Amino acid sequence: MIITQKYINDTAYAIVGCAIEVHRHLGPGLLESVYQTCLVDELNRYDFNVQPQVWVPVIYKKKILDSTLKLDILVNDLIIVELKAQENMIPLYKAQLLSYLKLTDKPKGLLINFHTESIIKDLVTLVTENFSKLAKA
Fold it and tell me: Among candidates 134, 114, 109, which has minimal Cα distance to 33?
């Protein structure tokens, strides 16, 4: 399979749809871990390659450092999904996702907050330079 911008965008669209489905059933107010468990289950229904709680290596000057960084969900080894269940989204969360994208060399990331009226309203989508290098269709 050739990975294109369209493939990644279509996958991201499906991920957001799964998050909306989870939010529709559970609503806001639960722990992030509950949403993660349900979202992983929902994503598995679509036969995505879903990896929860993926360790993120930190490489500094060609040396791999001991790291406690874990991203929430990696889908199809392409899209990082960071979940929050926070009343207020702060810039740190976007910076965290940007760092994960840089450290893992993945093309796209989604920051999804479940403590909201609307998943779409608070959704943050980020792409990297790797994404821009892919064919569009």
Answer: 114
Q: What is the DSSP letter of 63?
A: E
Domain range for 23: 5-132
Residue 10, helix vs strand vs coil: helix
Query: How do residues 30-68 score in pLDDT, each as one tens digit?
Result: 999 999 999 999 999 998 999 999 999 898 898 988 888
pTM of the model: 0.95
Rounded to whole angstroms, the Cα distance separating 76 from 49 reads 5
Q: How many domains does the chain have?
A: 1
For residue 126, the 8-state DSSP code is: E
Torsion angle of the four alpha carbons 44, 88, 31, 69, in this order, in degrees rounded to the nearest 10? 70
